[in-house]
Fold this protein.
Amino acid sequence: MYLTKEEERIYDGELGWANQICMKILAHLGELFGADKLIPIDSAHISGVSYKTLGDAPSDFLKALAKANAKVQVKATTNPHSIDKGYICRKIPQEMCQKQRTITKTFEKMGLKNTLTCTPYYLEKPKRNSHMAWSESSAVVYANSVLKAWTNREGGPSALAAAIIGKTPNYGMHRTEEREPKAIVTLNTKLKNETEFGALGILLGEILDDKIPAIKGLESASKDDLKQLGAAMASTGMVNMFHLHYDESIRTENLEKINVERKDLIQVSQKLTTSTKKPDLVFIGCPHCSLNEIKRISSLINNKKTKSDVEFWVCTSWHIKEKAGKYADKIEKCGGHIITDTCAVVTWTEKLGIKTIMTNSAKTAHYAPTLNKAETIFTPLENCLKAVLKE
Ligand code: F3S
């Protein structure tokens, strides 16, 4: 991969250890994936922020970078970490909260904005056709497919390196030809709710691996449904993008053809439910809720109250919580918790005694058995609310 004179100086360590290591990460990635050069980026979004998933060794690496005066060159935001500002934090060992705060402060020291959300696009929508280095898989698919921005699925370290250098290697989703569809998916059934979009994502991720699909039949899908589709697709596969509109001019001879029937979605949904027990937690907000989703939850609650033996969490960003005002208040008055900065998957649900999670998110239902050691019940929002609200 070609490096400019200035990039070579950084590579050789003339601008210090932190810049050198970041440039080396980017140069090696570029070599590995056949990039021709580095290109400037508008923004970076960094995952791997939760102490639960990160552990001690990567935290030490981050501290070393900050100590060496590493600073981000572009707008850089962070994914959810392992605690909220109060409710969850009060219930888990303070030593773990402290370790998390240290990591989060380290990011701040390097100039990142601690947005602590997996939906950074609700805070500021990326520009169409802008190049970025984002590392939250659900946000990557949403950005490429719905917002038409350009980003590879970075790992936490490569997104941080890109933020510090202000550039990313030019390969994959940054090239027009790599964004072409490689498969045509025909939906032979109409999708009725968010869980069916999630189930479709889980199914396509398994079949497609990293092949970009053009999907026929998504014309009337809402952005929230597409968010569920992309998050689920990225959970079981390496797909970074889907085409919403099927372009009749696409030459289809060499493309894989996939037909999706109702029975396929039912099968996936059944697999995402592992329990018939009463849930300990009803969790909505994976990926973090949009304002519309909060409004919808609030309107479905009516004036009911939550049951005393089931937790009710609605996860979102502090930005959306502030905007949600009276809608958020209504959820909290009914006994639910609007939780920001974290989510059920990246916090320590086991430490809170949560053994069964009910959710309308296919991504959570897919990961909770391993990451939370919890059983799952995967069902639409209306059923989630029935399970947590008193009659
Ligand atoms: Fe976001 Fe947590 Fe889901 S980080 S995408 S709510 S697993």
User: Anything to note?
Assistant: The longest helix spans residues 17-33. The first strand starts at residue 38 and ends at 40. The chain has a mean pLDDT of 96. The CA atoms of residues 286 and 340 lie 12 Å apart.
